[in-house]
Write a structure and sequence with these properties.
Length: about 80
């Protein structure tokens, strides 16, 4: 019997749970960069077991958002418009 609250099957692959991979992948990141990175990885992680193409499109959305944020920040702007 699967545990959809504590160990959902679509977030478990082999010996690694998605939450542990997300924690490692976002170390040193904060704010929207951490959010977008984590969500993109989450949707890439689960697509074959849950959302299929919809999850791939969600991952793409978060990747595009992250790129937009990084490009805007590289122009000397941040979220406060400075």
């Amino acid at each position: 019997m699967s545990d959809n609250i504590n160990h959902p099957p679509h977030y478990t692959a082999g010996k690694v749970e998605c939450i542990d991979a997300l924690e490692a992948a976002t170390q040193g990141l904060s704010g929207i960069e951490a959010v977008c990175t984590a969500n993109a990885i989450k949707y890439l992680w689960r697509w074959p077991r849950k959302g299929r193409v919809e999850d791939l499109k969600k991952a793409e959305w978060y990747i595009e958002k992250l790129i937009s944020v990084l490009e805007r920040d590289s122009c000397g702007q941040d979220f406060a418009g400075r």
